[in-house]
Amino acid sequence: MYLDSLPNETLLHVLHSLSTVQDVLSVTLTSKRLHALCSRPAQRLPILFDAADRQIGPLSSAIAVVTHNASQPPHIPRPQPPQSLSLLKQLLSIGAIANEWADLYPSIHWGGPDPEECASRRLLRQEERHRVRRACYRIWLYDLAFHNGSFPRFSRLHPPVIRSRAALLRAWTDGELGELLDMQSVFRTILEKKVCPSNGTIIRRHKDRYGELSNPIISLMHIPAPGGMKHWRHLCNDSIGSVDSWEGWGDDVSHYYVIEDMMKLHPGHLMQLYHFVTGKTDTLAAMVDDGFMMTMSLAGHKAAIEGFVAGLGEWFDNNGETRSETIKYVVSERGGSIGHMDDIVAD
């Protein structure tokens, strides 16, 4: 039996059951009848949005991100916007990033030095990918709402600000808050190992690769300036032979505060930085002086990342993320403890 011989109701059921937007577009190109059926205004958008929900869902969480603005507190549900191709394009843009995090999750979550942990690594099931994407969207929404210039460092402990942050998280169960903590640990690992490695991490990698004394390393130290912006200087070891050049982000103490600052970046920014340091792209939009593209050089990772962060504004510096402490605040309101949340994350 040919597909074209089926009644419209059956064909519509098939179209509504496809897994991705690309699948819908591909199927509609196979025959004029399917193309005409999907081109009807009353059918096209519902079919595409059903496919998008399977591909990048939950759409409700993604829509909350793309429709967020400062005119309304983030914990107050917004009316669902009408379906449109413009909205779908925005959803697919952030959904692609959330799916990238779902792809990375197994290698980060089960990527520790313990052989048993590595042996447990596997691909995520569809429902697990759904939860990873949901956590990404909710972290993204929190960052858009509370990690911005309206919330400088001195405001983080003000009771009205704490209550406004907690109002958003109270809508989610302990299990869903555990998903946020789990994704935060993935983001932190990416920052510590890939984007902003400490001096000690760079030295350990150098020794693992070259041995103790075979190749000296160019060391870079973090020098805090009076104005609060981060500046760096090179401390080069002169030696005969080859020199391995990489840039560390300070000793253990200063590196901790660098990571706390960088954890305010939303999942889209973090994925952009990950692509940059892993070589998937050789440019990074630094957003300084009305925006420009800073091209990566041999030892330019840190300079480009610093330029990117500087473009976010002075509020970003020395102002750590607030998600973790707000989750603890909400859990304590419910009579729970951080140990209880650790058990949830482990499960």
Order of helices and strands: HHHHHHHHHHHEEEHHEEHHH
> What oligomeric state do these chains adopt?
single chain
Number of helices: 16
- Main sheet characteristics: 3 strands, mixed
Helix content: 55-70%
**Cα-atom radius of gyration:** 23 Å
Tally the beta strands.
Answer: 5
Structural class: mainly alpha
Shape: globular
Q: List the uncertain runs.
A: 219-245, 286-299
Residues in β-strands, percent: 5-15%
Q: Mean of the pLDDT scores?
A: 84
The spatial strand order of the largest sheet comes to 2-1-3
Distance between the termini: 47 Å
Describe the 3D structure.
It is a single chain. The chain has helices spanning 8-16, 21-28, 32-39, 41-56, 59-66, 85-109, 115-119, 126-146, 159-169, 174-195, 199-210, 252-262, 267-277, 301-310, 323-333, 338-346; strands spanning 217-224, 230-235, 244-245, 283-285, 293-295. It contains 16 helices and five strands. The protein has a three-stranded mixed sheet. Strands 4-5 form a two-stranded antiparallel sheet. α5 packs across α6, α5 (59-66) runs parallel beside α8 and α9 (159-169) crosses α15 (323-333). The protein has 347 residues and is mostly helical. 57% of the residues lie in helices and 6% in strands. It is globular. A hairpin with a 5-residue loop joins β1 and β2 (230-235).
